[in-house]
Every structure is written in C-alpha cells, then in structure tokens.
Design a protein that fits this description.
Layout lengths: L17 E4 L4 E4 L8 H21 L26 E4 L5 H11 L20 H13 L3 H8 L4 E6 L2 E8 L10 E8 L13 H5 L7 E8 L17 H14 L5 E5 L2 H12 L4 E6 L7 H10 L13 H4 L2 H11 L1 H8 L1 H8 L3 H16 L20 H13 L3 H11 L17 E5 L9 H4 L6 E6 L7 H4 L1 H17 L2
Parallel strand pairs: 6-7, 6-8, 8-9, 9-10, 10-11
Antiparallel strand pairs: 1-2, 3-4, 4-5, 5-7
C-alpha cells in the first residue's frame, strides 16, 4: 500500500510549537511551553503574524500556465513538420577534429595560483595544466566517439526543433516475473546525455530484488548537445516539458516514468504537474521546492528548538543559516551570469576548449563534494574521484563539437523569464514520487519540507555517498533507488 506523506507528517505532535498547513490554511499553536529567550519569542510572534497573512494566499492553487499546443521554435515562420524518427550517429568531421586539436595545442596563458588557495578561487591553474596535458596526449576522441555510439541515437522534429535522444531498450533475457516499463531520463547543466552511460546497463538489465527493467529514453534538452536550440525567445523548462511529452507519445508511450537531476529534476517535476495522466511516477535526485511556506518554515526553524519544525537529524542540512546562505552565494555566481548575460559568457567559452573545460570542470569538482575546493587539485585528479577524467572530457567535447555552450546557458535566462518563472512553484506534485537524497548535493531539504511540494512520496532514501552528478558518480546507488521506487509502484498495480 502506498503511503502519502503529509507536509507536516514528520513534525512531533508533542513538541510542535507552530505549524503552517498549506492545504487548509490553518495555524496551530500548542499549549506546551518551550524554553527560549524573550527576544526569540518576539521574533517568532512576528513571524506568526506574517504567516497568518501569507497563508490566505497559499490556500488557492494557481492555474497551470497556458502553453500554445503547437508553437514553432525553429527559425523563421512555421512549416509543415516532419514527424519521422531518424537514426543518427555521432560523427565529428575530420575538419572539426583538426580544429579542436589545433586550439587545444595553443600555448596556455595561465595565471599562477595563489599559495594554498587550492580551488577556493575556482579552477586551479596547475590542475588545469595537468588536465590539458592528458587531453592532448592520452585522450582519443575517435575511441570515445565509438563508446558514445554504443547505444543507438535518433532525431525527430518537434515544434520546429530537431530533438536528439538515445535509446537503451530493455534486456529481459531469461529473467522471470520481470516487467519492462518506459523511462525518460533527463540530464542537467553542465551535463548531457553522457551522464547516463554507466547507469544504463543497471537500468535496462534485470537487477536483484527488482521486478522491472526499463526501456530507457535519454533525451537532450533543446540547446544541449545534438538537440537544436530555439531560435526564438521564451523557450524554458516548462516549454521543454511539453516537447518531451510529445517525444514520448511519438515513441508510443502514453504513460511512462521520469527521472532527473539538476534541470532534469525540474523538467521532470514540471511534467508530473502538467501531465499527471501520462506520468506513472517521478524520481528525482535533486529536489526543487520554492514556496512561501517552506521559506517561512526554514526561517522559523532557526529560532525554534531542534525537533519542532526541523528534525534533529536534519539540522545540519539547513543550519546555521549563515553557512547555508554563504554557500549558496558562493556557488550561485554562475547562475546569475547565465540568467542575465548568457551570450557574453557563451562567447568567451566558445573560443577555446581549455576555457570551456576550466568553467565546466570547476563545477564537477565543487558539486561532487563540499570539501573539494580545499584540495590542491579540487579532487579531480585524485584516484578516488568518482568520475573518470575521460568521462568528464567526453561531456565537454559534446558541448564543444555541437557548439552548444551558449545555447545551453541561455536555458537559465529563459528558465527565469517573467512569462513562466515561478508559475508552478506552489502547485503540488500528486503523482507518485521517489526521492534520492545524496549527502553532497548542493542543497538538501528535510523530508517534511519536500512534502510541501510532493504529496505522494513513495520512497525517500538518504544515500551514503554522492553529490550533484549522481548518475555519473554513484550509478549503482541511483539505479537501486530507482528500481526500488518503481518496483514498489508496480507491485501495487
């Protein structure tokens, strides 16, 4: 039997001082005395007033944003759309490969790193030098290209855009009592479909303890890799959700599962909100929750004793807030640039693969473990780093050879555009949800915070290790979590 987690289900009834019930709009104050200073009581009292004022605006669920059913995002005027699905092979021309190698061979103009700065100022020049030497002397694109073609690739035109996707069909073999189910995998930035190569065999082959295998579709977000970018303004994550629904329906899947991290998590969440009749379940490894109730709860939790609004075991996820906010400011600079001036940073990164690598690899360092900025090589060259250097270079090469860094960072600007930004923030996800919490993720919210957004949490698992790039870092952990989620659902049907 599926268990629906109420947004406040994890709060202790015994010691709950304050609760904001978003669905009913009620405010409940207990009679138990909680020891705290008068100054804290005054702050909490003021917040209660603010909460009471805010609650009435949270009672009515806003409507879904209106999207044109058949917009045209390609260049020029709308045309008759070719709905055929065509096989595609990754094949970089010899001319483009020679140009890449020539640019990579240019003398490096690096500024010496500050003493003992490690990665706290960003990409360390000594580490970048080592990576470039490996790239020049040991990395073989043609061999890597063959690996990338080990799964079939396709393109089809949707809303005027050529959409790229990769397939990994289920391999049931002689396994008994195993069911094949469709799954759409969605990547993020600065990732690509390359993120999924190590996890695919764990998804499309039978696994111990699971009664499902997956027919996997890995779609590239428009403007990323081999998916064509929009020629018109306004194409963001909500518009991508509509394109990906059309893709899955064109492939014959009226109902399917979703999995994603980073942008993939947000797109998957949006699809679950917008098209619940088509989504069997949504599984994410980075959870987006942006609502007034969660913000207020986070602030109140800083003043109230542990266990009232935030469980004792979750305190380190949020508090002290000064550390959390400091980290977010340090790690969100790229987002502000890409949200406001994407073409400027895109033009700079598009001139040399070394520049592109410095920008992207710094994210792979910091987002895989919070301690990596304090290591001389950012962890990137250490034998224990969870992602191989060649796999990361494959990802960078996809950005380079497809000329897609500018169009990929534009996705931030369009994602925060005034037309659609925040339109789905306060609309809940009611389809079954599986949540995998990796300890080194940029931000991990407590489960009772997440339940403000996801009303039907089927599985929620704290992972023992891993960060932002879960499919590349810890494919086995992510695969097991996804199998458990879907197996739980399939047993109930």
């Amino acid at each position: 039997m599926l268990h629906t987690v109420h947004p406040y289900g994890m709060l202790s009834a015994r010691c709950c001082l304050l609760d904001i019930q978003g669905q009913s709009g009620s405010v409940v104050v207990s009679t138990e005395t909680v020891k705290m200073s008068w100054s804290r009581l005054m702050v909490v009292g003021l917040m209660v007033v603010v909460v009471s004022y805010k609650v009435k605006y949270m009672m009515k669920e806003p409507p879904l944003p209106h999207l044109e059913p058949d917009p045209w995002w390609g260049p020029g005027e709308p045309q008759d759309e070719d709905v055929s699905i065509n096989r595609f092979s990754i094949s970089v021309s010899d001319e483009d490969l020679r140009d890449f190698k020539a640019r990579l061979a240019l003398p490096l103009r690096l500024t010496p790193a500050l003493e003992d700065a490690n990665f706290t100022y960003g990409m360390n020049s000594d580490t970048l030098q080592e990576i470039v030497e490996h790239w020049r002397e040991k990395y073989d694109w043609r061999k890597r290209e063959a690996r990338l073609n080990s799964y079939p690739h396709f393109k089809t035109r949707i809303e005027g855009l050529d959409i790229h996707f990769m397939r990994a069909n289920s391999k049931i073999g002689s396994a008994k009592n195993v069911k094949a189910v469709p799954l759409l995998l969605i990547h993020g930035w600065p990732g690509s479909f390359v993120e999924f190569y190590d996890i695919l065999p764990l998804l499309n082959h039978p696994q111990e303890g699971s009664n499902v295998v997956f027919d996997v579709i890995c779609a590239s977000i428009p403007g990323y890799g081999f998916s064509q970018s929009s020629s018109k303004q306004g194409f963001g994550n909500i518009e991508t959700a509509q394109v990906f629904l059309k893709l899955m329906k064109r492939l014959g899947y009226e109902k399917f599962y979703l999995q994603g991290g980073d942008w993939g998590s947000l797109i998957a969440t949006n699809m679950a909100i917008m098209y619940p009749d088509h989504i069997l379940g949504v599984h994410v490894n980075m959870v987006f929750v942006n609502s007034p109730a969660v913000t207020l709860k986070m602030i109140l939790g800083a003043y109230l004793p542990a266990g009232v609004l935030v469980a004792k075991e979750d305190q380190n996820k949020l508090y002290p807030l000064s550390n959390l906010f400091s980290m977010m400011v340090i790690e969100s600079g790229y987002m502000h640039i890409q949200s406001t001036k994407p073409d400027t940073i895109g033009a700079a990164l598009n001139q040399n693969p070394v520049s592109l690598a410095a920008y992207i690899l710094e994210k792979f360092s910091t987002w895989t473990h919070k301690d990596n900025p304090h290591k001389p090589d950012g962890g990137l060259l250490h034998s224990n780093f969870p992602i191989s250097l060649d796999n990361m270079l494959d990802n960078i090469c996809i950005y380079w050879f497809t000329n897609s860094i500018t169009t990929s960072v534009r996705f931030y600007s369009e994602g925060f555009n005034k037309k659609t930004y925040g339109k789905l923030d306060t609309i809940p996800v009611r389809v079954p949800a599986g949540l995998a919490s990796f300890p080194q993720e940029i931000l991990n919210l407590p489960k009772n915070f997440i339940a403000h957004k996801f009303y039907n949490i089927v599985t929620y698992n704290e992972q023992p290790a891993g960060g932002h790039f879960a499919a590349m870092e810890r494919p086995a952990l992510l695969a097991v979590d996804l199998h458990k989620f879907v197996t739980t659902l399939e047993k109930t049907t």
